[in-house]
TrEMBL record:
Keywords noted in UniProt: Oxidoreductase
Key word Oxidoreductase present: yes
Family: Belongs to the short-chain dehydrogenases/reductases (SDR) family.
Annotated GO CC locations: membrane
UniProt name for this protein: Oxidoreductase
Entry keyword annotation includes Lipoprotein: no
GO MF term (any one): oxidoreductase activity
Length: 263
């Protein structure tokens, strides 16, 4: 088990789901933590639990990463803690579901800001110091959706494809310089994600647990992989586009996800 004592980790979207599970696993390995999410009220109980259970230092930063200046405000507050970030987990994110023309343009824009723009910007702000120190870890939460086009979740699938491609490129660019970059690709996982999305779904199997996702991520880090897919069934479905062709898989997905009712 990798030891993160004397290391500080920043986790975005730390107030629930996969992000909260990451904070728990990192604290169990001795890391001090900076937790970021929009609501201080939701972050506080997570922070208190980590301090009580693991005796680590924890800072909370309420921030809306959909705002243009969100990532810069976050990093400003991180710098105010006087801690260098050794581990960055870009986890904050959400999806939108429905016919593209009917989805509020504003919400899709916020989705791109959180799922894509903030991931790139926060990484850009924190990675140079890791390079200077000659060590660091960046974990970006992508999705099995990153491997294929996802009709009725077009913006989400495209956003996660960005995260996957971006992470693999940085993995190859920085692995010889002491920086590990990993994309974690969960399939349907038991979190608030589907309440926010407004539709339940699974890839035929049971929902995965957040602990399973985080364990897969640590296995990926231990093995120095560029990306990791959580769960065997998710691994198979993620490879469908490669085997069957991107158009065919998008067509099948469109039939599966098409919203009920007109048109
Ligand atoms: N669950 C799945 O099936 C699944 C599958 C593949 C990938 N993922 C990815 O896993 C990541 C975590 O999602 P989850 O499943 O754990 O869902 P979740 O429980 O809804 O957690 C999402 C986290 O992101 C935060 N967040 C949302 N909007 C934000 C914003 N504007 N600024 C800063 N933080 C924001 C949320 O804070 P609030 O609660 O305060 O809004 C929450 O802490 C996401 O990137 C998601 O795309 C999830």
């Amino acid at each position: 088990m990798t030891d993160f004592r004397n290391r500080t980790a920043l986790v975005t979207g730390a107030s629930s789901g996969i992000g909260a599970a990451f904070t728990e696993a990192l604290a169990a390995r001795g890391a001090d933590l900076v937790l970021a999410a929009p609501s201080e009220g939701k972050l506080r109980p997570v922070a208190e639990r980590l301090r009580a259970l693991h005796g680590v230092r924890v800072w909370t930063v309420p921030v809306d990463l959909a705002r243009e200046d969100g990532p810069d405000l976050l990093v400003e507050q991180v710098r105010a803690t006087d801690r260098e970030i050794d581990v960055l987990v870009n986890n904050a994110g959400f999806g939108t579901y429905g016919r593209y023309e009917e989805l509020p343009a504003d919400r899709d824009h916020r989705e791109v800001m959180v799922d894509v723009v903030a991931v790139e910007r926060v990484t850009h702000l924190l990675l140079p110091a890791m390079v200077e120190r000659g060590h660091g870890t960046v974990v970006n939460v992508s999705s099995t959706s990153g491997f294929q086009a996802v009709p009725y979740m077009a913006v989400y699938g495209a956003s996660k494809a960005f995260v996957l491609s971006f992470s693999i490129a940085l993995w190859a660019e920085y692995r010889s310089r002491g920086i590990q970059v990993l994309a974690v690709c969960p399939g349907p996982t038991d979190t608030n994600f589907f309440e926010v999305l407004g539709r339940r779904m699974s890839a035929g199997g049971r929902l995965r647990t957040t602990d399973e996702v985080v364990s897969a991520a640590f296995r990926g880090l231990d093995r120095g992989l560029p990306y990791v897919i959580d769960g065997r069934l998710n691994y198979l479905t993620s490879n469908a586009s490669r085997l069957l062709g991107r158009g065919l898989v998008a067509g099948i997905t469109a039939r599966t996800l098409r919203p009920r009712g007109r048109p």
